[in-house]
Amino acid sequence: MPEQVQEGQTAPDFTLPATGGSPVTLSQYLGQKVVLYFYAKDNTAGCTDEARGFRELSAAITAAGAVILGISGDPLAVHEKFSAKHELPFPLLSDTDRLVSQLYGVFKEKNMYGKKVMGIERSTFIINEQGIIIRIFRKVKVAGHAQAVLTALK
């Protein structure tokens, strides 16, 4: 397992399949800020609320000079349906092999109903225009999270 990425370091680059038809490479966003959020699974209560939170503030986040990218291990077909159902104005990226989640140190052992399972720990990274991680939110609680990200961007 790689070390967790830290604030102040260059965000690891990657390319993943994304909703909307074209793969997304992180470095294509150099010159603008990126809100990179990792979540466990489409169509679960917390992850749906988190996506809706980012959707509701997407115009303000864009106005703050940032793009939003959501990543989970769901296949692209599931992302497409989830994105359409909730009218998400930002791409969802499919990390089915969990390599990017491991790169960012968010694929971890978690407790699910008393059982130990491997999964994505809800985490958000704010990356500046030069590709440097300037803020990390780990073990995110959904309520108020999108607003906290917007505040950190300003």
Instruction: Give the averaged pLDDT, no decimals.
Output: 93
Compute the gyration radius: what is it?
Answer: 14 Å
- Under CATH, the homologous superfamily reads Glutaredoxin
Helical fraction equals 25-40%
Outline the structure in words.
The chain is α/β, with parallel strands linked by helices. The chain has a single domain (32-153), classed as 3-Layer(aba) Sandwich (Glutaredoxin), CATH 3.40.30.10. Helix content is 27%, strand content 27%. It has helices spanning 45-56, 58-63, 76-85, 99-103, 145-153, and strands spanning 15-16, 24-25, 33-38, 66-72, 92-94, 107-112, 115-120, 123-127, 133-137. The strands form 3 sheets. It has a 5-stranded mixed beta sheet with strand order 5-4-3-8-9. A two-stranded antiparallel ribbon has the order 1-2. The longest helix has 12 residues, at 45-56. The mean pLDDT is 93.
